[in-house]
Amino acid sequence: MSSVQNVRFFSGENIPLEMHKVRVVQKLSLPPIERRLSAIREAGFNTFLLNTRDIYLDMLTDSGTNAMSDAQQGAMMQADDAYAGSQSFERMHAAVNEVFGKEYLLPAHQGRAAENIIAKSFIKPGNTIPMNYHFTTTLAHIDLNGGKIAELLYDDALRLHSDNPFKGNMDIAKLRATIAKEGAGNIGFIRMEASTNLIGGQPFSLANLKEVRKVADEYKLMLVLDASLIGENAFFIKQREAAYQKNSIGDILREMCAQADIVYFSARKVSSSRGGGICTNRKDLFDHMKVLVPVYEGFLTYGGISVREIESIAVGLRETLDENVIGQSPSFIDYLARQLDKAGVPVVMPPGGLGCHINAGEFLSHVPQEIYPAGALTAAFYIISGVRGMERGTMSSVRDENGNDVFADVELLRLAFPRRVFTLSQTKYVEDRLKWLYTKRDLIGGLRFVEEPPMLRFFMGRCEATSDWPEKLVQAFRADFGDSL
Ligand code: F0G
């Protein structure tokens, strides 16, 4: 895949051409490397604790950071402020109806709030939730409600460099075996996550989702779809699944959602700064969940989202149907991943959604999982580039009941591409600095926790370096780049 809009270049290069122009900009600065070293130290080597003042490119996440369209901003000016019965909510409801094909909608202030309501409504202590793979906040809510997860990817999905186009698929034989082992009565629901976040934004195929649906029907189990990154998954289905190449993104989205009893999403991914929702065509499920919305979120017609954001979600959801919009971030990720791959930098292939994922386990093969290679690479990359990525490895995992680390299946540095935010020259800068860092990888050491919260520790935990490797890295940078920023 190259650019989304099928423009071929005379040079034969695959250049992801932007199908938008930029009219509102935010000034950036690149602090010198010595300041970056102090900043990451002050932040306990945790990029979540950095201030954007010290960041050049913020590639932490796409959540709440995608660029808004002029149509979204325009819609926000016409919001209907009301605690109850807001017409803005009616417009979001209509967009959900059109895009996801679901009749009933419950608003929530963001994706994890939707997860709270679903987990509280349908998980009993001791239940198992089979899923393709967990997301951090999903696991936390299942855990808090006494459930446990069964991750049922095909064995080869964790081979980071492969040509499997659908690593997010659920292994149907494993699903059947899990149901047989646990008993259908002990399964809260089956969960499928679109563009499976923690394994590198990897999609599932529609054929696979339909197989999962069949098994759910057989055992009368509910299928819940995490649609936070559904647009990207639909885009990959159109690109990679032969049966759907002629379908529109809209058709694919509705077909995906039609397989699920409940679809929930974080609306922070559709350029809104807040919001989420749960939708279904089943009135019984809607009625069962709706009592929790006023308790945790707010009244049923705003659910903790401001009316202006509700308007931007309504427009943003419809914009997801445009291939040039939904394909913008995947095509930049594709570009960067292929450039790095060509240069031998270990990167997740095929490229996925949300971000370019660097295989920290291989990049830092000399750093054992006990001292967090993905965390170390994330900190090292920030120091030498001013680019903030996110650790997606053992630090984002948990400890077992004996206090031992549960090593993550994959150790990744995620460099998110919020939609329509970064330019190609900024992408080239990231490529350049990663290539340089790869040549200096032996200098990088590990991290250890000095402050470790008991849950979702990656958000607020603080670490120190296991040696003076950060200083050595700065010296190597100065030796090669002189007084360059
Ligand atoms: N599910 C998935 C697949 C997600 O990627 C996210 C958020 C959530 C649920 C929770 O949504 O943040 O609105 O509460 N992912 C962001 C990320 C935070 O950076 O990966 P939320």
Please characterize this protein's 3D structure.
The structure is a single chain. With 485 residues, the protein is an alpha/beta fold. It has 2 domains: 4-62 and 325-481, Aspartate Aminotransferase, domain 1 (Alpha-Beta Complex), CATH 3.90.1150; 70-321, Type I PLP-dependent aspartate aminotransferase-like (Major domain) (Aspartate Aminotransferase, domain 2, 3-Layer(aba) Sandwich). It has helices at 33-42, 70-76, 87-100, 111-122, 136-144, 172-182, 206-218, 230-240, 249-258, 283-290, 292-296, 307-319, 323-326, 328-342, 360-363, 373-385, 424-439, 457-460, 469-481, and strands at 57-58, 104-108, 128-131, 148-151, 190-193, 223-226, 262-266, 276-280, 355-359, 387-388, 390-392, 412-416, 447-451, 462-465. It has a 5-stranded mixed sheet, sandwiched between helices. The protein has a 3-stranded antiparallel sheet with strand order 9-12-11. Strands 1-10 form a two-stranded parallel ribbon. Helix 4 (111-122) packs parallel to helix 5, helix 8 packs across helix 9 (249-258) and helix 16 (373-385) crosses helix 17 (424-439). 51% of the residues are buried. The mean pLDDT is 96. Residues 61, 63, 110-112, 135, 137, 193, 197, 226, 228-229, 266, 268, 276 line the site of ligand F0G. Ligand F0G is lined by residues 61, 63, 110-112, 135, 137, 193, 197, 226, 228-229, 266, 268, 276.
